[in-house]
Amino acid sequence: MSNFTFVNEIDIEKKEISSDEHLCEDFMFFCRFCSKKIKSTSKYNNINKVLVRSNSYYCPFCIRNQFYTKRKKHILQLSFRGIIGYLYWKYYRAKDKKLYLNEIKDMISDHEKVGLQNPAFNYDPDTLIWFVDFSLVGPNKRQLDIEEINRTIVNILACFNLSEIITIPMNHKLFEKYKEAIDLFYQKRQRPENKRLLVPTFAGCGGVMATQFDYENKCRKFLPDQLVSR
Fold first, then answer.
1. I need a labelling partner for 7 at 20 to 30 A (CA). Which of 45, 163, 173, 200 fits?
2. If 0-12 CB within 10 Å is exposed, 13-18 middle and 19+ buried, where does residue 127 land?
3. Which of the residue ranges 26-35, 120-129, 149-158 would you say has the lowest mean pLDDT?
4. pLDDT on residue 74
5. 58 plus 77 within the same structural domain
6. Quick one: 59 and 130 in the same domain?
7. Where does a domain end: 24, 40, 64?
8. Distance between CA 93 and CA 95 in Å, rounded?
């Protein structure tokens, strides 16, 4: 087992680890913007220091897309982990298996293809996070209408065939959770409940949805490396 030590951002700032390269080989850090867990190396620390010019650490994806700059205030992070995690744990890992793992993987692939058809949507497959650029959305002629964002959300949701798999009397509520947060961010650049990531779940959608299901750990925190066969 690797002897990695997990340190938070405050520890990094106080100890100024990046100033001593030989100390930068054995720890993991979490991206300041998307919270992706990254293995640190001396080479990457130098790249981060040169480009970001601060003690804050960002993953290569966020640096590549300049999410460490003022641009990030226009970026809404959202994910469909709430659906993916639920389908995996309740329909694949269940005793009475109703979905195959490849079916879930195909849904993930389809939702990526559909979402990327909208140029305002960027995607990191390592975290299943979408980054929606609201600087491209607005009333101007060279901006997209907000309804184009909502329409893309609807098209992505359709990739999971929820109406055929899950009985949800109030299935419109899942979309409404996305729409409400999207409208709030569009109008005020305010993130849902002051969180960085929007991950709606089936909680509160009614029907046969498990009331005691661990939505936080099995849905909101679901990552691709959890898609293992059994």
1. 200
2. buried
3. 26-35
4. 97
5. no
6. no
7. 64
8. 7
User: Cβ of 137: how many Cβ atoms within 10 Å?
Assistant: 21
pLDDT digits (tens, 9 = 90+) for 47-101: 888 999 888 899 999 999 999 999 999 999 999 999 999 999 999 998 888 999 9
CA–CA gap between residue 230 and residue 153 (Å, rounded): 31
- Do 209 and 97 fall into the same domain? yes
* Same domain, residue pair 161 and 117: yes
**Whether residue 60 is found in the same domain as residue 83:** no
Helix, strand or coil, per DSSP, at residue 3 = coil
CA contacts within 13 A on the Cβ side of 81: 28
CB 123 within 8 A of CB 81: no
For a pLDDT cut of 90, what percent of the chain falls above it? Answer: 65
Q: Range of 114's domain?
A: 70-226
Neighbours of 174 (CB within 10 A): 24
pTM of this structure? 0.85
Number of domains in the chain: 2
Which residues contact residue 111 at a Cβ distance below 8 angstroms, ignoring those fewer than 6 apart?
A: 80, 156, 159, 160
Considering only CA atoms, give the Rg of the chain.
19
Domain boundary among 47, 64, 81: 64
**Could you tell me if 37 and 114 lie in one domain?**
no
Quote the tokens at residue 60. 């290569």
